[in-house]
Design goal:
Layout (H helix, E strand, L loop, with lengths): L2 E6 L9 H9 L3 H9 L3 E3 L2 E2 L11 E6 L17 E5 L3 E6 L16 H7 L24 E7 L2 H12 L4 E9 L6 E5 L2 E3 L7 E3 L7 E9 L3 E8 L6 H8 L14 H7 L6 E9 L6 E5 L4 H12 L2
Parallel strand pairs: 7-14
Antiparallel strand pairs: 1-4, 2-3, 2-4, 5-6, 6-7, 8-13, 8-14, 9-12, 10-11, 12-13, 14-15
Length: about 300
């Protein structure tokens, strides 16, 4: 069923192109916003707009949003390379390999953590959307490392709350180009979808508050190994913030990494790994921490960049 929204043009969107404004208002990609406009489903003061029309102050917007596509259900099949770091009756902690999404989404046809656990005979919580069984946080498909999944309904609700209230310690290691100055610092910059609508995110005025703390563990000739502590958990947050300070993750071509360096080190994705995860156990109450060793591709690249220094 379509969702009809009617509202005045927000002050911050005066003078914006209609497609860009729609993207920011409803979290759509720029191309999806253009499709909705082309279908005649965006009216300004009662008249259909073109994607390049500019919104004016005091105008009245009427937007008919199509129903979201139903997400696919997880396919229960084992995921090669996904190891179990810890398991009890309430939680299971995995070391997620490359090329595995947390859960099914529209357009993703690859393996998922949920499907892999179900395929290997593990039980997961059934709370939440069917495609997100047990999922309380996510890692990008090509970001590896420690990830916890809820097995019991109690664990699901308590872990979701813990992540929302930032009572979880999430530590990442990232190999970034160059040498951040200062060696230890904080990036506090709001993040939202990139105006281009090509699936990227960016530092955007008026975006969601996002805070990343980093500390240099080791500096090499061409790159630096950082430990990163996330205060917030936005999509692509580390990748966006490192790119914003001109030190993108090695291999992260989507966010401006040098393809020559990536090729020399044999890195075909962002050098980013969730190395440690700590949280209060949802039923025992004890603080627990888990560490995930680097996968082979990141380990080899780190050895090579260290050997070149």
């Amino acid at each position: 069923m379509a969702d009809v929204r009617a509202l005045p043009v927000p002050d911050g969107l005066e003078g914006e192109r209609a497609d860009a404004a729609l993207s920011r208002l409803f979290g759509l990609s720029r191309s999806r916003a253009a499709e909705i406009i082309a279908a005649g489903d965006v009216l300004l003061d009662g008249r259909a707009v073109a994607k390049s029309d500019r919104l004016h102050g005091g105008g009245w917007l009427e937007v008919t949003l199509p129903p979201p596509p139903s997400a696919p259900r997880p396919v229960a099949e084992p995921v090669p390379g996904m190891s179990i770091l810890y398991e009890d009756d309430d939680v299971i902690v995995v070391n997620k390999p490359i090329g595995v999404a947390a859960h099914p989404t529209t357009g993703w046809t690859g393996p998922t953590v949920v499907g892999g656990l179900l395929g290997a005979g593990h039980t997961v919580a059934t709370s939440g959307a069917a495609e997100r069984q047990g999922i309380v946080h996510r890692l990008d498909a090509n970001t590896t490392g420690a990830m916890v999944v809820a097995k019991s309904e109690t664990a699901y609700s308590r872990l979701k709350r813990a992540f929302k209230e930032r009572r979880v310690d999430k530590r990442y290691h990232a190999l970034v180009q160059g040498h951040p100055d200062p060696f230890r610092g904080t990036v506090d910059a709001p993040i939202d979808r990139h105006p281009s609508g090509n699936g990227r995110f960016a530092v955007v005025a008026g975006g969601r508050p996002s805070v990343t703390h980093y500390d240099t563990l080791e500096a090499f000739r061409a790159a630096s190994l950082l430990e990163i502590d996330l205060e917030t958990g936005r999509t692509h947050q580390i990748r966006v913030h490192m790119s914003a300070i001109r030190h993108p993750c090695v291999g992260d071509l989507l966010y401006g990494a040098d393809p020559t360096l990536a090729a020399r080190l044999g890195v075909r994705r962002q050098w980013l790994h969730a190395v440690r995860l700590g949280f209060e156990h949802p039923t025992l109450g004890d603080w627990v921490e888990f560490e995930a060793p680097y996968p082979d591709d990141l380990d080899r690249a780190l050895e090579q960049v260290a050997g070149e220094s």
